[in-house]
Design brief:
Blueprint (H helix, E strand, L loop, with lengths): L3 H20 L10 E7 L5 E7 L5 H25 L7 E6 L2 H18 L1
Helix pairs in contact: 1-2
């Protein structure tokens, strides 16, 4: 069960990481990445950051993941300076599959409509 504080910290982390990726990270592998959701544990020790990319290619997604993992230290340091919480959570990046799933469903519906 998440409480109000978890969600509020998650929203703040999401907003700040999107800003950090746009303004501070120069790695071309993380360009075009959007943070779609952040889930923070109850003790605020860990944050799972869900992201989506513009590309569906596995190689591009792999590069994006590597770029994010390389930038994790810098992102966490920057978050620590921006957030007013006691301890900056450990960051875990995970690809948000819901966007790809939604595209797949759209494609299936389109094919059904063409067959009519």
């Amino acid at each position: 069960m998440t409480n109000y504080r978890d969600r509020r910290v998650g929203q703040e982390v999401q907003r700040e990481i999107n800003d950090i990726l746009r303004k501070k990270i120069r790695d071309p592998r993380v360009q075009g990445i959007t943070i779609t959701d952040v889930r923070v544990t109850g003790d605020l020790q860990h944050a799972t950051i869900f992201y989506s990319t513009l590309s569906d290619k596995a190689s591009e997604n792999q590069k994006a993941q590597e770029g994010l993992e390389k930038a994790t230290g810098l992102i966490r340091k920057e978050l620590g300076q921006r957030l007013k919480i006691y301890k900056t959570p450990e960051l875990i990046f995970a690809r948000d599959e819901s966007v790809a799933y939604g595209s797949h469903i759209d494609e299936l519906i389109r094919k059904l409509n063409q067959n009519e």
